[in-house]
C-alpha cells in the first residue's frame, strides 16, 4: 500500500535541528526519518523504517546466501561470560551495566562473542558439526563518551553480527573469505564508495582483521592508501623498522639550552648557540622527543609509559590507544611528575627512561629511530640537552611502538610510493578471532582422530543503523537527501498538485497501476498544501524518481523528474508506469 | 531455500530440560526453538526464528491493514518522561533502571506510552493531524519477580505495542474498535482458542480495557464467564452491592469464645457453646472476617488496610493488588501488631477498625455484606466475639472493596445465571487510556474552533514472543509440538531415509519442486542418522505435514503424514507437490 502524505506520521522541518552537526544527519531529522530521544539514542519514524527495512533485507539476504543461519540472542545479558573473557572489565565505561532486582550483575550486550561461543559449546561437540556460521540483526549498546552525528555513532544501535566456527585456521580462512565476499556484495548494493582496509583488532583480540569504510570527509576513521592498492586504517599501519646506519656522529656532549622546553624553542636555540659544523640547519627531525603518558589498566593500576619519536612527529592518540589496549591512556600530570623527581619536564632524555634506568619507566621507540642514528634530546636536567646521542651506542630502549602520526606523503610500508590519507566511516569489520574466546570459555570439539581441539572463531559486523546514516551523508545536496535506488523509502514519489479534483482522481489511478506493477509509491495526496511545499518536501525526502501530476494533465502530460540529476521531462500520462519501471530496472542493474 | 537438517544449527534433546515446567516450554527447548540464557531471558535458535517471523508478520499485516504506521523507539530511555507520569516510581522493582557514564538515570522500556505521547506532541499540533495510530515491534523489559514458563513471562520479550491518538472519546472508541477487530483477526490467524475478557486497567490507568486470553490450564490469569457471553478477568469482576435487608437480629452481645483465632475454631465453638435459638447451625458464612494487610505506597510510606468479608471467603491477592495499585501489598506482621495494641489478633472486629475508630485503620467491606445483615465477628478482646452485630446499625465501614475471591458457581454480576471459572494466558491487552498520559505530558492540539484540547489516547499490546509460547502450550502431544499451519517453521518436513543414495537424489528433486511451488520445506537430508531418529525428530519439531521418502520409492510411493491426526497414507511420488499444496491450502482457509 502506498505511503500517503496525507496520513503519514511526518512533519518536515525547514530549519536545521539544533543538535545535528553533519549535513546528512540534519536532513534525516528535517525530512522526518529519525528523531532524537537522548544523546546517541534515536527513534525511527515511518520513512526511516522503510530505509532501515531495505538495509536489513540486503544484509539478511547476503548472510543467507553464504549459509549463515539467523538467530536472536538477548540484549540483556548476565555478567559471568563477560567475566570469563575479561571483557566485563576491559570495556570500561563503554559498557552499560545494571543490576536486576536480585542484585545480579547484568549488562547490555555491546557484541556477542561470548554468548554465541557458549551456545555452540552447549549444542555441538564434533568436527562433523562444523563449519558453522550464525548471525543476528539486533540492538547493541555502547555507552560512547561522545555519541556523534546522530545514528553514525549511537549508544543504542542496530548491528548485524555474525560468528563463524571452524576446526582449524584453514577453515577460518574460508569462513572469513566467504564473509568478506558477502560484505563486498552488501556494500555494493548499498551504493556508496567504500574501501577495505587492514585494521587493528583492538580489544576484540585475534589476528587478522579488515574494515569496510565508507569514504567520507565526515568519517571518524583515517585511513591510508598507496598506488599498489594497499589500504589500511592508520591504527593498523605498520611502519618498517629503519635499518641500522653507520655511526658518523662524534661523542655525545651535553650543552646548555636554557628555556627550551619545546621542540620549537630547542631548534631555534640549537641554530643560534650550537650551529652544526657542516653548516646544515637543525630541524625538528633531528631531535628525539620523549613523551610520557599514563596507562590505566582494566584493574585500575596506573603505569607510566615513555615514547621516543622524532621531534617533528606527534604521538597519534588512536594509534597509541589500540597498541596499549585494554589499558586506557591518560595524561601524565604535574602530580605524576612529583612522584618521578628524576624526570626534568621539557628536558627528559633516554638517560633516565627504561625499565633498567632511574625512572624504571618502560621506554619504547618509534621504529623510524634507526640504530646508529644521532639525536639531540633531553639531558635530564633543566635547561640542558645532549647532542649526538646515538641509538645503540649511547642509549637503548625497551622496545618499539607504532604510535607516531602517519602523514600524507610518508613512504608506504609496502615500498610502493607514498601514502595518501583519507577519512572514512566504519561500516563493517571482519575479524579472524582465532581461539581467544573459545579458549576462555572452553569451546572444544572432537576432531577426526577423537582428540579435543579448540574451535577457531571469526566475528563479522555490519552497522545497520550506521549504514543508513553513512548512506545519507554520501547522498545529498543543498536541498535534501538523494537515496540510492536499493535503499530508498519508495521507488517513486507521486506528487499530485493543484486544486482540480480530477488531478487527484487520475493520480490515485496511476498510483494503483504503479503498485500493480510492483512499484513502491510515496504518494503526496494532500489537498490543502501548495505545490511549492510539495516540491520542497519531495526534494527533502529524496525518493530517486518523482512524478508530478498537475496542470499538464489537461494535455495528457505528467512530469517525471530524476532527483539526483535534476533532469525533468514531460511524458504522456499513459507512459508513466512503463517509464518508471524502466528507470527502476536500469538503476537496480547499475548498482549490482 | 530449504532448511537442511544436515547443517541446521539444532541439536534435539531426548531429555526434558531441568529448568522447564510446562509441557510446551519443555518441547520448545528439546526441539531446539529456544534456549535459556538467564532467568526469563532466552535465545531464539534458527527454528524459533522461523516461528517468530511468522507471528511477527501476522501482527504487522493486521496493524498495517487498519492504517497503523510502524515506527521503532529505543528500548534504552531517559528517566524524565517516566517521572512526569509517575511510572518511574510506580513500576517499582519491575523496572530495569541503570545509570549511564555521566550518571544520568535511564531505564529499559517496559512499555512506551510516554515516548509516543512526546513524539506526537513534537510533530503534531492540530485536530487535522488526527486520528493517528502508530505501532512498533520491539524488545521490552520487565524485571519480573517470578519469570515463568520460559517465554510466557520473560524479562526480555518482544511486544507489538500500538498507540492511538484522537481528539475526543468518540474518536478513541473508533480507534479502540479498529484495534479490537485487528486483534480478533490476529488471534484467529494464530489458530488457538481465546476469549476476550473485561480487564482491570491496573497501573496503566485509563477507563476501559479488555484482555485477549488464550484459554489454557497453564494460564496465570483466571477469568469468569456466564451463559450470556459475559467474560471478565477475575480482577475486573464487579460484584454488585448486596441490597439492604430488614434487620431481624436482636441486640448485639459479646460472648466468650476462648481459643478461637480461626474461622474454623470459631464456628465449632459457636455451635457448641452458643447455639442459635432457631436451631440452625452456624457456618463460616455467618462470620465476618477482618483481614489486615500492609500497603506500601510508591513513595515508601506504609499504611495498614482492613478488609471485612464473609468468613467463608478469602481475600484474592490479585484482585486486591489491582484495587490498591500503585501501592503494593505486604503482610501485616507481628511487629506491626505491636504498633497497634488495640488490635486483638484473631479477634479483630469493626469496633476498632475505620478511620474514625481507635486504630484509625481504613476499613473496607466486601459488597456482599448487606446493610441490615447480622454477623458474628471479633470483639477486639482476646477470646471474645460479638454475635448479631448488624451492619449499618452497630457498625459501619469507610467504603467497599472488590477483593474477595470469586468462585465457580457465584451469581454472575450480569444477573444471567452463575459464573464458570477458567484459566488463560494474556496474549493481548487493549486500553482506552483517555487523557492520563497526554495530560501529564502536555499533549494538546487545536480543535476546529482554535481551542486547545488534550489528546485522547489508546494503547494496545500483543505479546509476540509470548504468543509463540502460548501456541506451543496449546498445540502439542506426548511426543512433540504440532504447529498450526500459519505459524509453523515450515509447511512441510521432507524426511529422506535409508542408505540408498537414489532416495536422497529424488528427495532433493522433490524439495526443489515444492519450493518452486512456493512451499517452505524443512528437509532432513542427514546421511548417517537412522530413520527412527529422524521420525522422532520430525514428531518433536512438529511441522504439520511430513513427507517420508524411503523404501517405497522403488514402487513409486512416498508416505504423507499429518502430524496432528497421525494419519498417514502412501501416495504416488508424482503427486507429492499437488497433495502438499492442497493440504496447505485447505488448512490456511480453515483458519481464516
Automatic annotation (TrEMBL), chains A, B:
One of the record's GO cellular component terms: cytosol
Keyword Protease: no
Cellular compartments annotated: Cytoplasm
Catalysis: reaction(s): tRNA(Pro) + L-proline + ATP = L-prolyl-tRNA(Pro) + AMP + diphosphate
Annotated ranges, domain Aminoacyl-transfer RNA synthetases class-II family profile: 35-484
Keywords, ordered alphabetically: Aminoacyl-tRNA synthetase, ATP-binding, Cytoplasm, Ligase, Nucleotide-binding, Protein biosynthesis
Annotated GO biological process: prolyl-tRNA aminoacylation
Database matches in Gene3D superfamilies: Anticodon-binding domain, Bira Bifunctional Protein, Domain 2
Alphabetized GO MF terms: aminoacyl-tRNA deacylase activity; ATP binding; proline-tRNA ligase activity
EC number(s) from the headed UniProt entry: 6.1.1.15
One Pfam family from the record: HGTP_anticodon
Entry superkingdom: Bacteria
UniProt keyword Heme, yes or no: no
Subunit: Homodimer.
Function comment: Catalyzes the attachment of proline to tRNA(Pro) in a two-step reaction: proline is first activated by ATP to form Pro-AMP and then transferred to the acceptor end of tRNA(Pro). As ProRS can inadvertently accommodate and process non-cognate amino acids such as alanine and cysteine, to avoid such errors it has two additional distinct editing activities against alanine. One activity is designated as 'pretransfer' editing and involves the tRNA(Pro)-independent hydrolysis of activated Ala-AMP.
Similarity remark: Belongs to the class-II aminoacyl-tRNA synthetase family. ProS type 1 subfamily.
Notes on the domains: Consists of three domains: the N-terminal catalytic domain, the editing domain and the C-terminal anticodon-binding domain.
Protein name: Proline--tRNA ligase
Species whose genome carries this gene: Flexivirga endophytica
Gene: proS
